[in-house]
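Bumping with the actual sequence this time:
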Amino acid sequence: MEIAYIDQFKAQSPFSIIEIIFKEKRETKIALTFKNGTYVEGYVVDILKEEYQTFVCMKTEDNEVLFFNFQEISLLSIKQPKALAVELSKGTVSRPISNESGISVLELKRWIQKQQEILEIPIDFTLSKTDLQEGNVRLNCKDLITDFLQAVEIICKDALALEVWKTIEKIIITQAEEFKIIKQENNLEIYINTQKALPKNLVSLLVEKTESIL
């Protein structure tokens, strides 16, 4: 997995990558080659769009500040691709590449059991054994349940919502390409792709979709 993740990267415009770095990953070091051959390394500080032009402010490790028109750039290099693995693969790499400790299938099942006690509702994963062999899938499952518990706390903010929530008897989580939540009888069914990156605003989506069907 050390370099295999790079094979999952997707072609995209250099400026779209710069925008991602500016909005979410400012600590990511990049290198730029200008059309005149000038080469610089540093970090994105700010971006300004004016009509048909885009201007960038960067700083070097020596705190030298650079200002330039992005149209003068011929090549963008990412010095720390691991930090942008999810974004550069457009979600095919489901989690950032890091030294994050994994979780075994047994540990995940034990952890889910504890969350069921907090939720007071059974959680049923219909994922196949093959899916659960993937470490990132197990971590995504853990993140999904963590976010779902936060969503439930937001939903049950008043007595009326709490009474409606108490009619739910089971949570069923199913692997699917399309993210959706449906209510079948008294079961809440969550369809989500745990093999790819989870939505960044997952808690809000869980709240919105769950409230719409309760």
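The tokens above came from a reply further down the thread. The first strand starts at residue 30 and ends at 34.
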